[in-house]
Amino acid sequence: MSTVRIPPVLRETVGGNRTLAAAGATVDEVLADLFANYPALRDRVTADGELSPFVNVYVNDRDVRYRDGLETPVGPDDTVILLPAMAGGAR
Amino acid sequence: MATATPFREVSAAEALELAASGWRILDVREQAEWNEGHIPGATLVPLADLPSRIADVAPDRDDRLLIHCAVGARSLRASAWLVQNGYTNVVSMRASLLDWRRLGGAWEAPEQLLTPAQQRRYSRQVLIPEIGQAGQRKLLEAKVLLIGAGGLGSPVALYLAASGIGTIGLVDDDVVDESNLQRQVLHTSDRVGMPKTESARITLGALNPETSVVEHRERLDESNVERLIADYDVIVDGTDNFDTRYLLNDAAVRLRKPVVHGSIYRWDGQVTTFVPFEGPCYRCMYPTQPPPELAPACDVAGVLGVLPGIAGLLQANEVFKLVLGVGETLAGRLLMFDAMSTEFSEVRIWRDPACPACGEGTIQ
Fold it and tell me: Of B16, B25, B235, B329, which has the most beta carbons under 10 Å away?
């Protein structure tokens, strides 16, 4: 099982968890495993079956857009990071 | 154990003769005084460092040592200490260095990049080898623009001003609200209702009158963004919405201004540095602007007070490196901070060849 880090803005969709363990040998399979348990997460991370352009996915510290996208392999010791754009600042 | 040999105090004229006949000269003043000028060939050992350093500086207790300071007081104490510790040939110059110079004593003064007042004020950072007088001069000449004089802008502005950044511009059209005070440490209770830029100017002016604070009491938009950033060397982005972040990114890429990016949410912060055409830009990271509902502001989501403090100081740290031209910035790396677990982590971010702002096909 790989470890998936859930950013604060998405934690409400996964019962407040900061990290989750997920099965799967690719990003696609890992996400499918998460969505099966937390359907609300799907709408925040994907759009029309594709990764949402507002959410970056990293395997360890590498953006999967620059690897094999959803087909990027995920090993059992890898950490998957979901990272939506964050804007908070001044006010 | 020999009894302490007495030492002599000598005039400037006699000190000149001793120096000419080969006596070692020990200068027991402080580093900052040394930097302003010193006797060539002298060795600097500040009085307080004498016990720890003397064995390296003068291992032979019979060395002929001429001790001097600025006027003869510290050298007296240093000489007394030396003879108590077995040094046998010690004299103390009981005269000012001005006397030494009037009599034609050798003198070496580096080109002064800082005034004596600046040397005193910034002495602790001027001592750092990567800064020095030249680096401090760069800080004093730097112009840094802060987008937002709020949570992130507060710590950034305070530390930039304290360090002597010459010009700090503040873009904010908001007024101080009571609910800001939990984290926006530029502002004070008695300034609720005052424009944030004005409150910031008062605070920063009291902290460092040498820093010039420029108030831009407006909201960054398409019509003013290029005018606002054009005159500045580094932009610090501490805004609260995507519109402004994308607008700023695109203008900064066009004008080739580095942007130090910070964002915060509840217990989490992110910091990175965008250096146009050298590293990725904000659009390389997130090509499409998210809808506003994906950016819950602090007034909706809440934010821990220290979080903008931590993220803001990481931003200020980036500013210093950009201005000084030293070290490794966060260009190409997104640093993430989780206050709940006190954990830092980072991911790599890449320049996107297809980036509409800085990719291939854009003017470079």
Answer: B235
